[in-house]
Amino acid sequence: MTKIERRGPGARGRLTLSAMLVLAAPLMGATTIPAVAPVSAVAPADSTGRATTKHGRVADHVLVISIDGLRPDAIERFNAFTILRLMREGSYALTAQTILPSKTLPSHTSMLTGVDADKHGITWNDERVDDHGHVDVPTVFGLAKAEGFRTAAFFSKTKFHHLEAPNTIDYVRSPKGGIFDFRWDATRTVNEVGKHLRSRSAAPNLMFVHIGEPDYAGHMFGWMGRAYGNAVRAADQAVAQLLEKAEERFGHGNFTVILTADHGGHDRNHGSKDPRDTTIPWIVWGKGVAAGVELPTGIRTMDTAATALWMLGVDAPPGWVGTAQMNAFVDPAAMDAATTVSAAAVE
Fold first, then answer.
1. Across 85-98, average pLDDT
2. Which residues, other chains included, contact 87 with Cβ-Cβ below 8 Å and sequence gap of 6+?
3. Cα dihedral value 302, 303, 307, 310, nearest 10
């Protein structure tokens, strides 16, 4: 049975106690992430030795991770070792751009609908579902679900209720609202993901996870300061844990990740045309991805939606401005040839 947890309007609030503790104290310990197959690895072959992965169908499981407020220059400065590893082993751009206004809800709406704010119409940055309803353009969740794929989303802010359009997401977890449930820290989000992936429900083909720590710290203490650095490392550890849980459920080397952000920030705010606000990281890692490739400039947040659908073999709707970043992936023809050689060697 489809399990959807619908959330109601939320009141404003402040950081949860656990989130504040994460930001105030240095991060202790580290979580390792699963090894990824080398770039030379190929898609699984069927009994004839032909690769089962085809052009435009890179993986059966796509995980999109958005780290709210993550500036690209923070990744190396604060030694986000998990994200740095994804860059080394995958394809990446540190010059990708979000939309204007460079704020959480409008930017995530573009990230997950493939269109700019002039099309999806969400320019505010708080929860107003009672007044405006859900986004009225197709989301990646609805488009994937219409093609028979299972979808899941884990949001850590109430404003994401606008993206929870009915009958589009098979499994949703997000804050209800109120002063103690206004938003979730990364620990709770990761735990919610783990519970779902350990359940007997069918494994999601498209899963979105939002991590909010850097944005919380940026607004409270300022971007690029010590607390912000602790928050970046906390988010990085959460990414490592997510990858471990994904590998346990999907299998080693059997999923692909897009890791990005909705915006950056400076001082204690964001939303302007300042490059510190608009420049975001865009990283692809996992099955079918070419390793160590620095992608060209020009990537926009709408490309996340288009690339996620392309990886599942789903066509983007007409009118989308987002485009699939195919140059981040291994040439399918080369993958087929390598699989054939491998099968012949076994014989």
1. 98
2. 75, 283
3. 70
- Residue 262 contacts by C-beta under 8 Å, 6 or more apart in sequence? 66, 68, 69, 98, 102, 103, 104, 107, 108, 111, 280, 301
Which has more confidence, 333 or 84?
A: 84
Nearest Cα residue to 241 out of 281, 288, 193: 193
For the chain, give the number of residues.
347
Record: fold of 16-25+51-346: Alkaline Phosphatase, subunit A (3.40.720)
Q: Rounded mean pLDDT of 150-169?
A: 94
pLDDT at 316 over 60: yes
d(CA 255, CA 247): 8
State the sign of the Cα–Cα–Cα–Cα dihedral 284, 185, 251, 109.
negative
Taken in order 300, 260, 310, 52, the sign of the CA dihedral is positive
Our CA dihedral for 323, 327, 330, 333, rounded to 10 degrees, sits at 80
Model pTM score: 0.83
Residue 1 CB-density burial (10 A; 0-12 exposed, 13-18 middle, 19+ buried): exposed
Angle at 166 between CA 163 and CA 171, to 5 degrees: 80
